[in-house]
Amino acid sequence: MFSLTEWRIELIPPDEEGSRFYLDYYKPFRLAALEQDPDVFGSTHDREINFSNDDWLSRINNPLVKTFVAVRLHDRKVLSATSLIGPMPNPDPASNPFQVSSEMKNGSDHHHQNHQNHGEASSVRFQISGVYTLPDARRQGLAKILAETAIQEAFAYSKQHSKRLELSLVVYTSNGDAISFYESCGFVASAEGARKSFNPHKNASADEICMHYQKSPE
Fold this sequence. Notes:
Blueprint: E1 7-11, H1 16-36, H2 45-48, H3 53-60, E2 65-72, E3 78-85, H4 97-105, H5 109-117, E4 123-133, H6 142-160, E5 164-172, H7 176-184, E6 187-189, E7 195-199, E8 204-213
Parallel strand pairs: 4-5
Antiparallel strand pairs: 1-2, 2-3, 3-4, 5-8, 6-8, 7-8
């Protein structure tokens, strides 16, 4: 057990220091999470353990991705993390927002232009990739503060650009604890209910639901 004074929330910066932190501290956190709770992720430990450093850093270098972490101060260990991704091109939340944002970054700018040219200038869409906390750091409030940090970041962007925010996430229907957590953060399940999604990384299909943020910024 540790106190709130022993950790803090940080945004991993896309610079040399941030890259070192990402490889030295975030990478072990991510691999441990994939190994500990494989059923809650769209990716797999076997897949990401084989990533090159460039593969890992492609996310932090993506201007559409902001990764927030709860870091233990005395050893810099990452205890909890989430990523805010956007602006996204489409109204339907993506099962794999990292892939969508990567495609947008790597030459699919016409998606963003089309998004702007089809009467959607009044809104901006962001997606939270999910909040994960290591088992020994749970029930300390880290996940809630991380989620609120990402939410406020999205609202700040929408306010800066004078647009209405559409903030969403996708979660497996089998992950009841996560659904309850996101509900406590202000997300509401889509009225469309569950949808079947094929995951090529796992070569399997699973039921998932979209959840949309319903509260106003504080």
